[in-house]
Design goal:
Elements: H1 2-25, H2 29-39, H3 62-75, E1 80-85, E2 92-96, E3 112-113, H4 119-131, H5 156-160, E4 166-167, H6 180-190, E5 192-193, H7 204-218, H8 222-231, E6 239-241, H9 256-259, H10 265-274, E7 281-283, H11 285-296, H12 304-307, E8 313-314, E9 317-319, E10 323-330, E11 333-340, E12 345-351, H13 356-370
Antiparallel strand pairs: 1-2, 1-12, 3-7, 4-5, 6-7, 8-9, 9-10, 10-11, 11-12
Helix pairs in contact: 1-2, 3-13, 4-7, 6-7
Subcellular location: Membrane
Main location: membrane
Keywords: Membrane, Transmembrane, Transmembrane helix
């Protein structure tokens, strides 16, 4: 019996000794992981040190996942960037440069047109005003837009969930709209209020009207409100509105081959200027990662304000079982994010040389890898 106990103690001591040696020599990141698991401690975040984590169930490392992602993006010739992992930590980043042109490479800090991913910002702004009891989901919009047909029946909640019965109408402008007032006037003039309230109908105009409500209720411009309550407090320095960016060299462009459209910088800004509250922002991938972290960790608003809603879409995101997600498409740039708040995992994907349909298809493959 004593020999058996000595053998067990000796074996454990040997394993710990080997793990300590491997950590000291820094030759095998897996040794770091197993040592942490055995001792119950976490290593400090050392700058420049890439710690490999291991999935509890199947032993898949983040490096394994990165390699799988690279293979998929290379096979499909996708020019883009993927961020994944625990949103409260530094993300795992996979870049795929298939353009052979440095100006088209999507790095983690480059400004990128996030299109409908901006709706999350607008939804949060409205939610903050609701939490402050300045408006409610049942507030009818005739108080703000008396000239819009059926405005006495359409509520703030209807706009947030795209069930207002409002169609976008014309979204083409020959010039870049200069400010929020011009954009809101353009939207009001061109939208079509069908009266089909309660029926799902995705509409940028819903969120343009919400951006206008943010301004009317808060007493400050929509951009000023977003800056004061989200961008500045959470240090999102690489998130800009379209009218703050004047040099095309500062932003990523779409690949004309993916859509066949005119993807020049001025065309992009014209489209963004019309999309008040719904597609008028640039963001770096890292900034959007940090924004999602602030959202899912209940720092900006309680996440339950969003996830407790019973509609399929609310506050700029689609609601799933333990997940929220959103997609964006503008001028050849396709983007998306998915946050699993039950397992505390986030996935962000920005691309600029594939179609929206292709993005949705590859998104499923990439998420399966990132969340496995």
């Amino acid at each position: 019996m004593k020999n058996k106990v000595k053998y067990i103690i000796g074996s454990i001591t040997f394993v710990i000794l080997i793990a300590l040696i491997m950590v000291f020599l820094n030759k095998n990141c897996m040794a770091h992981y197993y040592f942490e698991r055995m001792t119950g401690h976490e290593y400090p975040d050392i700058s420049g040190y890439h710690k490999v984590t291991v999935d509890e169930m199947n032993g898949t490392t983040d490096q394994d996942k990165e390699q799988k992602i690279k293979k998929i993006m290379a096979k499909d010739k996708i020019n883009g960037i993927v961020l994944f992992g625990d949103p409260s930590k530094k993300p795992n980043i996979v870049e795929s440069d298939q353009s052979n042109d440095a100006k088209n490479k999507i790095g983690p800090n480059v400004l990128y047109p996030i299109a409908s991913l901006q709706k999350v910002y607008t939804g949060i702004a409205i939610q903050k005003l609701i939490d402050e009891h300045k408006i409610s989901l049942s507030t009818t919009i005739n108080k703000f837009y008396p000239k819009i047909a059926n405005s006495n029946k359409i509520t703030v909640g209807d706009l947030l969930s795209h069930i207002s019965g409002i169609d976008d109408g014309n979204q083409q402008t020959p010039v870049v709209l200069k400010n929020e007032n011009d954009a809101l006037s353009f939207v009001e003039k061109n939208l079509n209020s069908t009266g089909k309230i309660g029926k799902w109908n995705y509409s940028d105009s819903d969120y343009a009207l919400l951006a206008g409500i943010v301004s009317k209720v808060s007493g400050m411009g929509y951009q000023d409100y977003i800056n004061k309550n989200i961008l500045v407090p959470y240090k999102l320095k690489n998130t800009k509105f379209y009218n703050q960016v004047n040099d095309k060299a500062d932003v990523i462009s779409g690949n004309m081959q993916s859509t066949g459209n005119d993807l020049c910088f001025e065309t992009l800004k014209r489209k963004m200027s019309v999309a008040l509250g719904a597609g008028g922002m640039f963001s770096s991938a890292i900034d959007y990662w940090n924004f999602v972290n602030a959202l899912t960790s209940n720092k900006i608003i309680p996440l339950n304000d969003i996830t407790s809603n019973t509609n399929r879409y609310y506050d700029g995101v689609y609601l799933g079982q333990g997940t929220i997600h959103a997609d964006g498409a503008m001028n050849g740039c396709q983007s998306c994010f998915i946050a699993n708040y039950d397992s505390n995992q986030t996935f962000i994907f920005f691309s600029n040389n594939i179609s929206f349909k292709q993005m949705l298809k590859v998104r499923g493959k990439l998420v399966e890898i990132c969340f496995e």
